[in-house]
Amino acid sequence: MLHLLLGGLVVLVVALIVRAMIDCVRTPSERVRYVPKVLWLLFMLHAPVLGAVVWVNFGKRPESEWGIATSGRTESAFAGAS
């Protein structure tokens, strides 16, 4: 039973690390915060679990800060409304 729990935990950690690295590579450079993408990737290679957690929480700007409307509408759609 303990082997199944540990195996499941390992799978979840590896999935987090892989997802974070792919997300970092695919994120446009303009959305990356604090340091360049190359340094984020090196940090994730050096300290995979910590690097992945920090990337997911602090590594990139949210879409709403980056100028993408989250509701699918643009600002010009509201320009004529009073």
Question: What's the SSE blueprint?
Answer:
Elements: H1 2-26, H2 37-46, H3 48-59
Question: What would you say about this model in short?
Answer:
This protein has 82 residues and is mainly α. It has three helices and no strands.
Keywords:
82 residues; mainly alpha; 0% strand
Helix/strand order, N-terminal first? HHH
Name the average pLDDT.
82
| Alpha-carbon Rg, integer | 18 Å
- Number of beta strands: 0
The major β-sheet equals:
none
Account of the 3D structure:
This protein is mainly α. It contains three helices and no strands. The N and C termini lie far apart (62 Å). The model has no long low-confidence stretch (mean pLDDT 82).
